[in-house]
Amino acid sequence: MSLASIETNAAVMRQLRDSVGKDRISHAYLFAGPPEIRGRVGLEFAKAILCETSRDDACDVCTICKKVEHGNHEDVLDVQKSGNTIRKDEILNIIDRLSFKPYGGRSVVIVDDADTMTIAAQNKLLKTLEEPPGRSVILLLAERKDALLPTVLSRCVQFQLRDDPHLDADTAAIGRQLVDPRQKGQPFYLRAEAIAPHISDRDLCLEVLDAAQDDLRKQLFEAVDRAQYAHVPLIRTAVARIEQARRSLQAGYNVGYTMKHLCLLIDKRETTEETVWRRL
Ligand SMILES: [Zn+2]
């Protein structure tokens, strides 16, 4: 396989290939998501980083790609949990291994179940995450991000992965639908219906909001281009309401309630109260 042949998480795959192609690979990544997809992405990314045949992906036929695939490449260190956790000793082992020069251009460390690292293990890893020796790359794979220390998270380029291609493709479309000007005046439940299957997933709703906001930005430029200035305050109000919904989601408010509330208000004019607040 290769990054390009992974059918889900297309935007993430594009971004990873882009960073390999431009040789702008960071030294630490976190891939959060279900076991199969995070394992696959970790492995394909390691291949893409080390493969010398393909420019921005794994060629999947060279010796390097084959060795990584079969788990016997000298420069790839695979760390698994022992029992229920990954202990400090394992991390010391990684640090020790990374102190040796790689056979090829770089070493790649893949830590699966990184969210089972003990606090001591995570603390031990901090310095290496920040400045891994040489051009080494550390890939943390985890079910959930929130079991990791903020200091670990902040040192990684983070990606949330999904194993359902439908959810993956939908966020941009749902976001556009949410703010589609042709829907103006439609009963709110039609918008709410589009979002309904996804309101159990906070991260996904945050992506929908990103997509909606991107679309509003385009609408704003178009309105100004066409001198449709009357539309501008409505678009600004919609942006403000999306921002409000984002803050609510980030603050841990109920996802379903927040998104339905947004659907209800998104194309309503600013209330007098809001206008007053904005002027204050
Ligand atoms: Zn290859």
Features:
single chain; 280 residues; alpha/beta; Rossmann fold; five-stranded parallel beta sheet; 8% strand; elongated; binds zinc ion
Write a concise synopsis of the structure shown:
By secondary structure, this protein is of the alpha/beta class. It has helices at 10-21, 35-50, 63-69, 88-98, 119-130, 150-153, 165-178, 188-195, 202-225, 231-250, 255-265, 272-279; strands spanning 28-32, 76-79, 108-111, 137-142, 157-160. The chain folds into two domains: 10-160, P-loop containing nucleotide triphosphate hydrolases (Rossmann fold); 165-279.
Plain-language structure description:
By secondary structure, the protein is α/β, with parallel strands linked by helices. It has two domains: 10-160, Rossmann fold, CATH 3.40.50; 165-279. It has helices spanning 10-21, 35-50, 63-69, 88-98, 119-130, 150-153, 165-178, 188-195, 202-225, 231-250, 255-265, 272-279, and strands at residues 28-32, 76-79, 108-111, 137-142, 157-160. Strands 2-3-4-1-5 form a five-stranded parallel sheet, sandwiched between helices. The model has no long low-confidence stretch (mean pLDDT 88). The structure holds zinc ion. Zinc ion binds next to helix 3.
**Total separate domains:** 2
Number of strands: 5
According to CATH, the fold-level topology of the largest domain is Rossmann fold
Which residues form runs of ≥5 with pLDDT under 50?
A: none
CATH superfamily of the largest domain: P-loop containing nucleotide triphosphate hydrolases
Morphology:
elongated
Number of helices: 12
Structural class: alpha/beta
CATH class group of the largest domain: Alpha Beta
Which sequence of SSEs, written as H and E, runs from N to C? HEHHEHEHEHEHHHHHH
Largest β sheet strand count, sense and barrel closure: 5 strands, parallel
Could you tell me the strand content as a percent range?
A: 5-15%
Strand order of the largest sheet: 2-3-4-1-5
The chain-level mean pLDDT equals 88
By CATH, the architecture of the largest domain is named 3-Layer(aba) Sandwich
Rg, rounded, reads: 22 Å
Can you give the helix content as a percent range?
40-55%
The molecules bound to the chains, other than polymers, are: zinc ion
> How far apart, in Å, are the first and last alpha carbons?
57 Å
